[in-house]
Structure formats: structure tokens, C-alpha cells
Amino acid sequence: MEKSLARYIWSNTRRQQLWILAVVAVSMVPYFLSFDLPKQIVNGPIQGDGFENANARQTFMHIAYDIPLIGHVEFFEGLQLNRLQTLMALSLVFLALVVLNGLFKFYINTYKGRLGERMLRRIRFQLIDRVLRFPPVHFKRVKSAEIATMIKDEVEPMGGFTGDAFVSPALLGGQALTALAFIIVQNFWLGMIAAAIVGVQAVIIPRMRKRLLELGRQRQLTARELSGRVGEIVEGIGTIHGNDTSNLERADIATRLGLIFSIRYDLYQWKFLVKFLNNFLAQVTPFLFYAIGGYLALQGRLDIGQLVAVISAYKDLPGPLKELIDWDQMRQDVQVKYQQVYEQFNVEPLIDSRIQEIPAEAVGPLTAALVVSNLAVSDDSGARLVDRVSVEIRPNETVAIVGPNGSGAEAFAEALGRIVWPDSGRISIDGRDLLELPESITGRRISYASADTYFFHGTLRDNLLYGLKHAPLTDPGYEGEAAQDFKWHAAEALKAGNPTLDLNSDWVDYNAAGATGPDDLLTAIRPVLDAVLISHDILDLALRSTVDTSVHVALAGRIVDLRRSLRERMKDENLDAVVVPFDFDNYNPQATVGENLLFGTMKRPMMNNRRLAAHPYFQQLFRDTGLSNDLYAMGLEIAENAVELFHDLPPDHPFFQQLTFMTADDIPTYQALLQKLQSRRFEDATIDERSMIIRLSFAYIEPRHRFGLLSDELMAKIVGARKQFHENIPDDLAALIERYDPERFTSSASLMDNVLFGRIAYQQADASDRIRTIMSELFDTLDLFDDVLSIGLEFDVGSGGKRLTMVQRQKLNLARALLKRSDYFIFNRPLPALDQRVQDQIIRNVVQGLHEEGKRPAIIWVLSNARLAEIFDRILLFNRGDLVEAGNYPELSEKNGMFKELLS
């Protein structure tokens, strides 16, 4: 990076700066003429100079020049105008100059803005590019929030300054000098007064603003540190809650905010002192002009036109001068910020940019051995983790790495995966240092997975396929206006030093995953998901999701077949009573009162419980059927039972998990409400109180809550109200409520609800797991499993994948590495969150799956269970950073060494 911001700007925008400086130079001509014209108007047609008699005329716009070697050349002989005509002509010329000067300003400012935005885009991209090339160890020393703040906020002023870096001093300085020169031409002494004031402003104000720069630098540093601290709080919120240190963090934040406040308060005081002094000096000059200029006019040594022109010219002098002083402050401020950015991002050694370039040719397989020579790895404190290890790992070989915690096995695997860089020694393939190989080779032909997982905000599919997105492989095929937009954006990207890679292209390397395209990608993915035992997790996510019927047409079209097959399968296995189907003419005791009344689902977020309850048609239905009183009485019984049973229990008691209609925090509220509604009459309660009581009845399920509140008569009344509700439902409600239909897919319901078309009986133990197992088999039987899997893959994993469990994240991380079908697989204890039995099963699945059909990539696995090393060709045993034993399982298990101790 350039150390000087001015050099950085000039080196990247030289041609544009020269062009705009030329435009600025040309703009000074009409700017100067606009000063002289008021004097000509006042002295000429207004005061009558040259128009002493009524018929006098003067030549207007006579254009002629004496050109060397050519002589006198007349371009336009001019027009003969009388006094009034001359006044109008000069006024129109003044108006034209005003418009022309405005157009020059418009063009210059627009050009500067575009230039600044390009530079801002360039510097942000370059900083992120440098982040992508930081050495791995550097990320342990910086906070991500601070880096993000610098790229997002602290470089923002640099973009605005780019357009002003050379243009503003030229434009503003030119305008100020033009106005000052014009004043001096009119009267030397008035010009000297203006020059003296300008000199004071140019010397004193910048000196005073140095304090502002220092305060601004302190403010920026403290704000950046605050951002980093807030990021730490967000990332470590679990640790804070677990250790009761929230008040410590509040004290820390309050102290930091207090420091920022004091700096900003000092900054405001100094800033407005400088502003006061600057404004005072600017206003002293007009006073001197009026006093001294007026005196000279009274003495006849200065005509009125000259005085008016001088005052008019000075009116335009403080503006450019003030802006020029502001520009100098901005220059110093931005240079300080740029210096901080330079220090933060000038990291050595950076990864060579050529290592991350897109390859021109297809990347072939790695057929040479992985050779480790005298490898030494240390941590940040200098402690040696791996000490002078030499070993060769052949292609197609499976190697188990074992050792106690802290043995150096993990650090050795990290070095093989380029996660850490060696202190000494080297790792090479076919004579080439691993660190010098392009990432297009190591990122495709070498896969690494560990317990440290990170997933980007997006779908599960996006994160699973992330390891296959190396370069754009297909053309999006833009046409018409879209093609023109792409060309324009590509041209702008080039001007800003950005690549023209199109994010809308298809980046997935299907061949690397063993597929020919998106159509058979799921076929290639599924064995990997099965191997890491995550298929059923994704199936569960799919069953809880709603389905886009425009995408999954086949699944929606076969929903009736699925329902029928599920009923037949359950009948064959004597599970008829597990699911109670929906029936329009009957009450479903396993569903809530609200579900029975609605007999359908609401299309959220357009419709919800609150909006439905407030709808006039729904309220009228309650009045006509008398359900208001019935459900109110039912809600009172529920509230009394819940308060009586649970008011003495702690908020974390497991009973509250079964209480779907009320939380522990609601108990005191309903306790007070019941005391108020002692009369129990519907008419005595307010609308809000009725709503609170009736809401309880809507979530009631008799077999689950067992308060004995649902009589046959009330259930029949609810079914009757349901029929009346759907019989006369208005169009606006019908568009937002999907009625259950046994012959149709309900798009606003989950996939599981669609397949079940009913509710699982609460009395049946493990009913949900049994139903899911049957559904999974049915999806396979009906060739719908891939469709269901694709629905689960659309699940949003959240920030950092936090919507997934730790077990799911580690399984997904392993699956992402396996999908690349690399030549070398390095697994560094990737599944510590799983119990040992499941870990062993996944390891066997992976080794067996990678070596089927004649394929034998090299597998290097740091094991937690030493006994599992028997399925590997070779074992490397580490202890205290040294490779202490090496050999196959029979050799080491029979030898009285450290490996035998690990087995015992």
C-alpha cells in the first residue's frame, strides 16, 4: 500500500485529475468576467458613462485581437446599442455568466463525486483483498468488528476527499485568487486589506485546527475500540450469562462511552472556537470596505461602480477561502485516518496474490506424495507445538494420527491443511512447497475439516456447496437491458480496480462433486449426507418447513398418494390410533380449539390471530353462535386451574413446558385478572380482558391438558360454528385462510402437517419418531426423498450457522469437506461434540465411502479413539510435539510402547 494518501490518489486517478483540473482552469474565465460585469453595468448604462446625450450609442460585443505574425483580426464588429439596450444586453450577459458558472460547478462536482465513489470502491476492495491475504496467525491478533468498522466507516471520508484532493485547491484557490486579483485591480489599498485578512485566516486557523485533528484521531480510535468490544460481547454472550458478568460489561461500556463523551465535548468546544474566530475575521473585512471604500468614494478617488464591484467580489471571497481552509483540515484528517488504515492493513508477509488467482486451465489431481521435512510449528507465545517432524504420506494411503491432548497431533494436521504456517522445515508435494501452491490446487485437491466450524448467513445448501464455488463456470445469458446493465457495471468495476466476476453466474463445480449439473446434484450429495448421519436432521428440517408449490410441483401433486400410503402403512403396523385425521364434520380432540374452529391455516404474515379476532365477520360469528360466552367460561376455568396448580412452582419447572397456553410470567397477570373478574360474567369484563381469557381456550387440547372442559355439546357447537364460518366467509378472509382439504396440498402448512393431515395422539409414546421413520421410508419408496431433502437444504442456518446445533454444524462441516472429492483429506478431530460411538460410526462410513468403486484418496485423520486406528494403513503417534511412534496397527499394538498404553 502507498503510505501517502495523496500519492495513492494520484497514482490511481492521474488522468481524471488532469482532465478536471483543465476544466477548472477554463472555468476561471467566466468567473472573472462575472466580477467585472457589475462595474460595467453600474458605470455604463446606469450612471450614463458614454451616454451623455439621448441618441448616444455604444458598441456591444466587439471581438477583435492583435495576433503576432498575423496582425489585427476582427472576429465580430459588434452591435450599436442605446443606453436601455446596453443595460438589457449587459444584464443578459450577466445572467448567462451566472448560468455558465453554475453549469461548470455542476459538472465539476458531479465528476468529483463519481471519482470519489470509484476510489472508495477501489480502496474498500483492496482492503478486503488484503484481509483475504493476511497470514493465518494475524487473525488471532485482530478483532473482526474493528476490521469491519475500518472498511465500512473509516475509509468513507477518503472517497469524498478523492475528488477534492487536487480539484478543490485548484478550484477554490483559483476562485479566491481571482476575486483577490480583481479587488487589487480596482483599488490597491482595498486589495491589500483583503489580502492581509486572507493571510491571517490562512495562517492562524490551520494552526488552531491541529488540536481538532488530534481530538478527531482519539475519537476515532475510541469508537473503533468500542465497536470491537461490542462485537466481543455479542460473540461471548453465553460466557457473560454463564458467569454473571453482565454488570462488569456494563461498567466497561459506560467507561468507554464516558471517554468518548469527554473527547467529543472537548472537540465541540475547540471546533466552535475556531469557527467563531474564522467568522469574525470574515466579517471584519466588509466593515473595512464600507468604511475605507466609502471614504475613498467620497474623496473621489474611487467611483461607485468600482466600490460595488469590490464588495461584490469580496462577497465571493470568504466562501472559497473558508472551503479551502476546510479542505486543508479534511486533508490532514483523512491523512491521519489513512495512516491508521495503512498501519492496520500493512501486514507482512501477505499471501502472494498469484496464489489466489483463477487458474487458466483445469486443475489436475495430485499424484505425488505429501512430504514433511523437519517441520516445526509454534504457537503465538513461542511454545513449540511440533518439533522437527519428518514423514512422507503417500497418495491413496490412510493415516491415523493419535496422541494425548497437547501432543502436537492437532498442530501437525493444521500445518498440513495450511491453517498454520511452519516456523521452519517445509511441507511439499512433488518438490513444490505447500505454501507456494495456488489455492486453486490446495483448495480443491486438499480438504481440511476440524472442530472449528463457521457457516455464512444463508441456506444450508449454500453452505454445504461452499467448497465447490471456486470460479464462475456458466454465463448467466443476459439479454437486452440486463446485458447493457451488466456491461455498464463491468466497465465501472474495471475503472475502480475491481474484478468483473459475476456473482449471478453458476459457481458450483458439479463435476468435482460427482454430478453433471444441478439436476443430479442431490444424487451426488445424498451419500455424503448419509455417511455423516445428517440426512435425518435435514429431513426433520424439511418436515417443519412450508413448501413452495411452484418449485416442488411433484411433491405437492402427490400429497394425496402420500397421505393414503401413510394410512395404509400405519394400518399394516397396527398404528391406526397414532394419528387422528382432520374431518370437516367432526371435532379433532388432538388439535387445539382454535385449529378446530378455523379448520385451516392462516397465510402469515398477512393474517395472524390478532387480526383474525379483530375482523368484523369473525366477531359476528362469535355473537351469532354464542361461542363468546362458552369460550369465555372455558378460559376462566383454564386460568383458575393453571393459577391454582402452578402459582407456587419456580419459572423453570418442566411443567411449564406442557402449558402451551400460558407461561410462568403470565401466572401473576392472570391471578390478578381472576381477582378482578370475581363475578365471572361476560358483560362485566372489558374487551381486552375478554380477549385475554378467550385466548386461553384457543390453545386448549383436552388429551394434553386434561382439565375436562370439552363436553360433547361444546365440541359439536364448535364444529357447527366452523361450518358457518366457511359457508359465508368473505372474499378477503378466504384469500388469507386455507381450508384443510384431503384432496389438496395446503401451502401455508408445514410438510409434516400436509402428509399427516391430522394430529399425532399425545397418549402414544415415541409416536412422533415412529411417524418420521415411516415418512422417510415412504419418501424413498415414492421417489420423493430428493425433493424433500432439497426443501430441508433451503433451511436458513442463521448468523454463523447458529440456528443449527453444534452436532449438526460439525456434521455439516465434515460433509462440506467430503463433497470436494479431493486427493488428500485431512480431518483434525472434526466431531468432538458427538459421542464416541457415533464418531466411530461416521469415521467408518467416511473411510469406506471414500474408498469404494476403486477410488482411494489419501485420508489423514486425527483420532480421539486410538482403537479405531485399526482401519487405517498407518499410524503416527505424537507426544509433546515429537513423532514418537509410526507403523501399522498390528505392529504398534503388539509393541510395548505408548500406543499400547493408549489402547488400554
What labels describe this entry?
single chain, 904 residues, Rossmann fold, four-stranded antiparallel beta sheet, 35 helices, extended
Please explain how this structure is put together.
This protein has 904 residues and is an alpha/beta fold. Among the domains are: 1-186 and 327-351, no CATH class; 188-301; 370-454 and 822-903, Rossmann fold (3-Layer(aba) Sandwich); 607-716, no CATH class. The protein has 35 helices and 18 strands. The strands form six sheets. The chain has a six-stranded mixed sheet with strand order 10-15-16-7-17-18, with helices on both faces. Strands 6-5-8-9 form a four-stranded antiparallel sheet, covered by helices on one side. Helix 5 (167-186) packs antiparallel against helix 9. The longest helix has 53 residues, at 246-298. The radius of gyration is 40 Å and the shape is extended. The two termini are 57 Å apart. Keywords: ATP-binding, Membrane, Nucleotide-binding, Plasmid, Transmembrane, Transmembrane helix.
Number of helical regions: 35
The largest sheet is: 6 strands, mixed
Measure the end-to-end span: 57 Å
Question: Main sheet: which strands, in order across?
Answer: 10-15-16-7-17-18
Work out the number of β strands: 18
> Could you tell me the mean pLDDT?
83
Ranges where pLDDT stays below 50 over 5 or more residues in a row are none
Q: Structural class of the helix and strand makeup?
A: alpha/beta
Q: Name the shape in a single word.
A: extended
Q: Report the sheet-strand fraction.
A: 5-15%
The helix content is 55-70%
Radius of gyration: 40 Å
Domain ABC transmembrane type-1: 75-326
Membrane topology: Multi-pass membrane protein
InterPro entries: ABC1_TM_dom (IPR011527), ABC1_TM_sf (IPR036640), ABC_transporter-like_ATP-bd (IPR003439), P-loop_NTPase (IPR027417), Type_1_exporter (IPR039421)
Transmembrane segments: 18-35, 87-108, 189-208
